Amino acid sequence: MRNKRLSKADTLLRATDTLSEAGLSPLSLLIGVLEADNNDNALSNTRRNIFRPKNKGALVQILDLIMADRQGAETLNEWMLPHAVTLVCETIHTEMEAAKPFLHMTTAETTPEFIESWDINKIMDPISENTTPTWSTILSAATESKVCAAKAARENNKNSQVRHTTRNIISAQVHYRRSFHSSKVQIGLGLMAWSTGARKNLINVLHKAGISTAYSTVANTILALHKYSVEQAAKVSCGPHAFCYDNINISTSIHIEQRPGAMSKMQSGTFPVIYQLDNVDPFHLKLAPIIENFKKSKPLTMSDLRSSRTAQKSYEHQTNINIVHILLKHCTVVEFKKLIDHPSLQHLCRSQLPKGRKTQFYPIAVATIEEASVTGNLQVHDNVYIEQLGHDPETLGEYAIPTLNDQLTNARIRGAQALRAKDVNAWERREVFQLGFGIFHLIMNYIWLILQKHRGTITEHGSLASYFGILEKARLGSDKPDYYTLLAALTQIIDGLIVNAWRTECGVDSLEEYAAKNPTPADILRTADKIRKAYSVPIDTPPTVETTAPRKRKGQAAGNAELDPAVDDNTTDHTHSNTVLLTRDLLYAVELINAVSSGDFGRVEDILPQIACVFRGGGSNNYSMEILHLLHNIKEVWTPEFADIMRNIMLVNPSGLSGHHMPIDLNIEHLIGYLKALFAAKGLYSSWDRLGDISAAVKYLQLIKKRVAHSLASGYQGTSHKTPDTSVLVMRVANHAKAFQLQEYVKNRETQSRPTPDLRKLGYGKFESTSLAAFNKKIDTCKNGNNIDTETGEADELPQADFLDRAEEVDDDITIEE
């Protein structure tokens, strides 16, 4: 008969009793088996059985049970620590070696594509997750407490994201200290440090800390980017492209000894940029039909200086919308402000660039050639296309090259074309260059013209000088104001005048009172049209009635009534007339700036004839002639397809963001300003050739700053940043206009201002008398292939625009370190 089955506990008790009788404990038995000599077959077999794969679960269970006991866990942890450290170190060694290929990069491998896509998290996250998980886990434990880690698991808070990026930086430092070739992160951070003005000592300190490559390596990286940029420019210039260049002046420190072989105190150079033309058929750039059209071109007539009916209607609508937007910008009623997005209150597109298209451009090396002369321009062209880009002159004569510069450079290019009129091919004759002009310089000179003609004195109500006093910006009345400050002040002035016009036309004391009437978008547009006609259309003749208010016709607004022509000039209210002219001229500026930012050159083109007349009436012959050249080319010379190409390249969008278009000449001014500020902070090293290396890479130096800032969530503006509220200044202007009735005709006004001429009317008269005929004569002379004087024979009466260059404040003496 079988014995009675024992329970597991009874069996274990019997076994322990047996071991006790033999003088053994369970642990001593296990130790004896594990220490058994290989010659003892029975015990060695037992030991091997313990470690067989089928018993792996039992071994793990034993360890788990020990860890589950408090005393057992203390003993096991104490034993395990040195072994665990050794195991972890071996694991990390393996992981770090495996990560080397993913971070390997040399300076020669630094490409523009790498700069454009640089992001520390995109570089390090795949490595942390897939290649170095053990190291990443240890680093996470070291940089975040258990409480924060638990909170981060529940919430995706910003502090956790910052710690994550910090861990990636630490990991990159560790990888870089292990191998200097693991430098993908350090190359980006080193370029960023250099591009923000960090000096050599600081960059080398960052290198020792594993954050940046060495200073010499940064310099070699910039040289590699220069090489890539020039190669890409050469490739782009083989197809449809545009060309833009401007001068750059760098001065050395007064503490640098002037000696033979040393750099000059002042060095002038030329900074060229190649722009890629997207979606352009090369056939549309054929030069032959353009030259043929030029030879057959007809002279401009006075009708060309009048906007077409379509263009005039377009400008009237765009200005009405600008007036509406001023109303909505300065009204504090939130629901009313939302009308700014209403479809009927939007600008009409005339020739707008495609949204989201990013303009691709490629700076090349600065040449130490001064382009402020005809000979200098010829040398610049040869340096860029023959020496740097490596083109053969024989192959450059088939296609036109759109070239867009300021008025002075265009005049020099025309002088070069006249000088080379009898040369052997289209390149040598420079016929390949078809000239547009920089809209930024046009706007800047237009602002300067307004300042000069409407400045007046501080005691003349309605003059710019009086408004500057009201706005507490007296420095703008100086001979050399800051352009951007002046533009902001003029914007506040026109906003104030329009706000007062809204209050007057609508018969209310405040914009909020008008908003309370709940006008429809159609009502708002009708009122805006009345304001445009009544407050910005100059009237040539004053009223005859002996009253303090003008007589108006039915339907005419009170602010600027259509006046009876039979009145003596002595009764003219010059203060009111000056205000009307200032309002009109500033509305032109508002439309120009708004059209540029939206990327619609068609809106600019609509008012170019009026702007040309304003320039000519103000004594600025150069820019009026520049506009005539453009109008003549669009009408008579360029093919329709090429004219569209020129329209599309005069405005660019380097960022690709909607509403961030800019004139092509402003983009190069930004690049030059950045170069000058960088050199002012760092000084020049080695030679002027070094300037050429850096200038070709300037696009990527700017880009890496943005990429690093975006990657580290270190934006230019903090989360608490707010746009300054200038509504107080606007209301000062509006209240001043109301108090002194500046927008109303007042008979026998006590304080009279000196009259400001109607520049548009005056300029039209000058064109009609001599200027247009002189321009046409010059064009005819050029068509016959004779050497000509590119000027019209009429000197500029307006002083050259002389705004304060902000770079001058830090750029007087640029230290050159040897």
Q: Which tags fit this structure?
A:
818 residues; mainly alpha; two-stranded parallel ribbon; 57% helix
What does this structure look like?
The protein is mainly alpha-helical. The chain contains 33 helices and 9 strands. A 3-stranded antiparallel beta sheet has the order 1-2-3. A two-stranded parallel sheet has the order 4-5. It has a two-stranded antiparallel ribbon with strand order 6-7. The longest helix is centred in the N-terminal third of the chain and has 34 residues. It is elongated and about 140 Å long. 38% of the residues are buried.
Concise synopsis of the structure shown:
With 818 residues, the protein is mainly alpha-helical.
Mean pLDDT, all residues: 85
Strand content range = 5-15%
* Overall geometric form: elongated
How many domains? 3
Lateral arrangement of strands in the main beta sheet: 1-2-3
Largest sheet: 3 strands, antiparallel
Helical proportion?
A: 55-70%
Distance between the termini: 107 Å
Q: What's the alpha carbon Rg, rounded to whole Å?
A: 38 Å
Low-confidence stretches: 541-569, 787-792, 807-818
Structural class, from secondary structure content? mainly alpha
What is the count of helical runs? Answer: 33
| DSSP, total strands | 9
